[in-house]
Amino acid sequence: MRGGKSAKWVVGAIVVALSATACGGGSKDDDSSNSASKEKGKPAGYISMDNGEPQKPLIPADTNESVGSNVIRSLFTQLLTFDKDGGIVYTNAESVTSKDSKTWTVKLKSGWKFHDGTPVTAESYVKAWNWYSNVDNKMQNSFWFSDIAGYSDVHPEKGAAKTETMKGLKVVDDTTFTIELTGPVPYFEYKLGYQTFAPLPEAFYKDPKAFGQSPIGNGPYIFEKWDHKKLIQVKANPDYQGPNKAKNKGILFKNYATIEAAYQDLLSGNLDLVKQVGPQDLPKYKSDLGDRVIDEAWAGLQFLTPVFYSKTFKGVDPKVVQGLSMAIDRKTITDKVLNGTRKPATSFTPPGVAGHQELDTDVFTFDPAKAKKLVADNGGIPGNKMWIQYNADGGHKEWVTAVCESIRNSTGVDCVPDAKPDFQTDLEARDAKQVKSAYRGGWVADYPVNVNFMKELFATGAEANTGFFSDKEVDAAFKKGDNAESLDASVKGYQEAEKLLLEKMPSIPLWEYKTNGGYSKSVDNVAIDFHGDYVLTDVTVK
Amino acid sequence: MGRYVARRLLQMIPVFIGSTLLVFSMMYALPGDPVRALAGEQAVDPAQIAAMKKDLGLDLPLWHQYWNYLTGLLQGDFGTQIASGQPVADIIADAFPITARLTIFAFAFTVVVGISMGVFAGLKADSLRDRALLILTLLLISVPSFVLAFLGRYLFAFELGWVAPNVSGDPSWDELILPAVVLGSLSLAYVARLTRTSVAENLRSDYMRTAVAKGLPRRRIIGVHLLRNSMIPVVTFLGTDLGALMGGAVVTEGIFNVKGVGWSVFGALKQREGATVVGIVTLIVVVYLVASLLVDLLYAVLDPRIRYA
């Protein structure tokens, strides 16, 4: 009986396969009976948040997206950090001083240690910065060190590094080092708060790759484990001496497939913090969560940026762009289309950055009649048609359509949304100068000074200036701000430049970002910082 | 039969190469540069990007990249993810067991419940219970799986509180029941209908009459004579369905937060992680190939007239 024999064989195979997989990952009972929340696998006193999977290994200078940054900021402490209003708070530094904004002296607090017990010294900073900026190490954020004298030796525009060290960095003693810049940068101190400027222990240089998987920092939390695509666990550092010592026992950075799934877990008590509530839950999240809702603006702006090489905007009169700005009904769109998740912009800088000012202008006010007149009287738009490029994978379609509708109705200019399938394709078109008329831009503060929203975006040849705006007066105004004697003077200089931008209109600010999140019943003291991220060290467990 | 199996296994090689080449070139053709995208809206250093691409071999022509990939694969190297620097093999090893478990649950559910329902209804065609089954399965076919998923979660997680709304990162078997039922319910409807029709038809056939006339016990008539012959179309469907369950679980996995293959391949596709997509798709292709081989072998078991030399 041939059939009978093979039947047994097939059934046998299925049974083996079933038992191998079904029983493989069975029981695990490390649950936390003494924790207030019923969350599975969470040690007592820990908090959990929806964070996603970091794109890259956890090396401070190789991460610029927020998911990885959240973890890195918990593990590493830089020289200084910022309070809610963008003010400087010294963490690892005792002081950062400069007489001429060109040569800076950093004094470290003594007695700090990395999580492996080795001391944090001036050398830990200098050596790390040299390594980060070296072109051969291909760090994403290496350009952050480009202000330092000697950067072009370790990171030449072409080819390999000429030397290992930048001549601008000098170790004076164990707790002191100096930074010499190529020119005065009054707001340089602010940049030092970016996570990229974190120090590294000696252990890093032995095996950077392994370090990226289990980093050793000097921060308020100690790395525990990284279960890829599932969670990252860190525990509070009991010996931490900085002002931002953890008030909870640790954090679980969890990864959910969708923000909706995370929200469901928040509701059922399986998750403590959700950074952003999805569109489908936004209409009801306030009634679901009551006073456990976070609804606050932070230092990020959405722009509608014309590209100045395009047929539409080549040699355009700035008044036309002003007209387009006035044609957009920001209030209705933020309320209705964006469900109140954004706040209409009133200037080129968001609140929460030093130097944010209210511009005395009606350019950001919806006024269809004036908008139409401004566009028509100043040469209009070639072909009376424009496109707005956006990435279809980021939830922008609805508001871009609404903005276009608003422009069309107010000015009669035909406006067409131009979708790119995803962010990669969108960026590629921007780099390749293939944007048809304008694109959706977004900018989040790297350091809370108004400079960050102008120089990086609108200076001629600036790396993030993908609208290719170029204006001599604006460049001169920026330079004046950069050459100012003090930080205050520099911020004021940029405030003047901002007024000039209003006349030149390199871009149309649309709205400020808001964090629309919430937290569970088992945690307290939840607040956001200027990035819109939770201040995790302050969160307490009930 | 041994020779037949050997021949089929050999045939898998060109199919395997063809499908990987196809997926590989599709990933290559997609616009969007994964290395450039790492920088986002921040500044980019073109020299650095070029250097990274060179390291990853992404600057080579397509055929060369494919050749490198294939030779790597032969040495057991699935490649490395661009952003995270993690070996693709690790990612697959994380995701596959979960999806395999989910698929096997869904498959077992489909087979056991679907076939029983089909036999139950088919034995008394056009009766009330037959009509009830037809209506129920019609409902299952027409309701999209995400609707079922949401309904199921609302009912069992929020109203009754029997299960957690999401599957955790390292799921125990009971967490997967609800997603598996949702995932399997569409196939369940097809299997039930196929079985029902097949059973109803075969009831009228000559050999059934002979079996009854021989005075065989009812259990044997239905269990061996009727079912064995009625299973051929069902098995064909189930074979291809196994692969479809595995690849098509994106929606279900997304809703229930299952960190499986569907979710991984979706994420990788969004980030243009070519090696990951090709690796996972290749494995799904292998599952398909093996499943269809099993189906063909089962034919011989079910119907002795079918012989493979």
From TrEMBL, chain A:
<dbReference type="GO" id="GO:0043190">
    <property type="term" value="C:ATP-binding cassette (ABC) transporter complex"/>
</dbReference>
<protein>
    <submittedName>
        <fullName>ABC transporter substrate-binding protein</fullName>
    </submittedName>
</protein>
<feature type="region of interest" description="Disordered">
    <location>
        <begin position="22"/>
        <end position="64"/>
    </location>
</feature>
<dbReference type="InterPro" id="IPR039424">
    <property type="entry name" value="SBP_5"/>
</dbReference>
<dbReference type="InterPro" id="IPR000914">
    <property type="entry name" value="SBP_5_dom"/>
</dbReference>
<dbReference type="GO" id="GO:0042597">
    <property type="term" value="C:periplasmic space"/>
</dbReference>
<dbReference type="InterPro" id="IPR030678">
    <property type="entry name" value="Peptide/Ni-bd"/>
</dbReference>
<dbReference type="Pfam" id="PF00496">
    <property type="entry name" value="SBP_bac_5"/>
</dbReference>
<keyword id="KW-0732">Signal</keyword>
<feature type="domain" description="Solute-binding protein family 5">
    <location>
        <begin position="93"/>
        <end position="462"/>
    </location>
</feature>
<dbReference type="GO" id="GO:0015833">
    <property type="term" value="P:peptide transport"/>
</dbReference>
<feature type="compositionally biased region" description="Basic and acidic residues">
    <location>
        <begin position="27"/>
        <end position="42"/>
    </location>
</feature>
<feature type="signal peptide">
    <location>
        <begin position="1"/>
        <end position="22"/>
    </location>
</feature>
<dbReference type="GO" id="GO:1904680">
    <property type="term" value="F:peptide transmembrane transporter activity"/>
</dbReference>
Automatic annotation (TrEMBL), chain B:
<feature type="transmembrane region" description="Helical">
    <location>
        <begin position="276"/>
        <end position="302"/>
    </location>
</feature>
<feature type="transmembrane region" description="Helical">
    <location>
        <begin position="12"/>
        <end position="30"/>
    </location>
</feature>
<dbReference type="InterPro" id="IPR000515">
    <property type="entry name" value="MetI-like"/>
</dbReference>
<dbReference type="Pfam" id="PF00528">
    <property type="entry name" value="BPD_transp_1"/>
</dbReference>
<dbReference type="Pfam" id="PF19300">
    <property type="entry name" value="BPD_transp_1_N"/>
</dbReference>
<keyword id="KW-1133">Transmembrane helix</keyword>
<dbReference type="InterPro" id="IPR045621">
    <property type="entry name" value="BPD_transp_1_N"/>
</dbReference>
<comment type="similarity">
    <text>Belongs to the binding-protein-dependent transport system permease family.</text>
</comment>
<feature type="transmembrane region" description="Helical">
    <location>
        <begin position="176"/>
        <end position="195"/>
    </location>
</feature>
<protein>
    <submittedName>
        <fullName>ABC transporter permease</fullName>
    </submittedName>
</protein>
<keyword id="KW-0813">Transport</keyword>
<dbReference type="GO" id="GO:0005886">
    <property type="term" value="C:plasma membrane"/>
</dbReference>
<keyword id="KW-0472">Membrane</keyword>
<feature type="transmembrane region" description="Helical">
    <location>
        <begin position="133"/>
        <end position="156"/>
    </location>
</feature>
<keyword id="KW-0812">Transmembrane</keyword>
<feature type="transmembrane region" description="Helical">
    <location>
        <begin position="102"/>
        <end position="121"/>
    </location>
</feature>
<feature type="domain" description="ABC transmembrane type-1">
    <location>
        <begin position="96"/>
        <end position="299"/>
    </location>
</feature>
<dbReference type="InterPro" id="IPR035906">
    <property type="entry name" value="MetI-like_sf"/>
</dbReference>
<feature type="transmembrane region" description="Helical">
    <location>
        <begin position="234"/>
        <end position="256"/>
    </location>
</feature>
<dbReference type="GO" id="GO:0055085">
    <property type="term" value="P:transmembrane transport"/>
</dbReference>
<keyword id="KW-1003">Cell membrane</keyword>
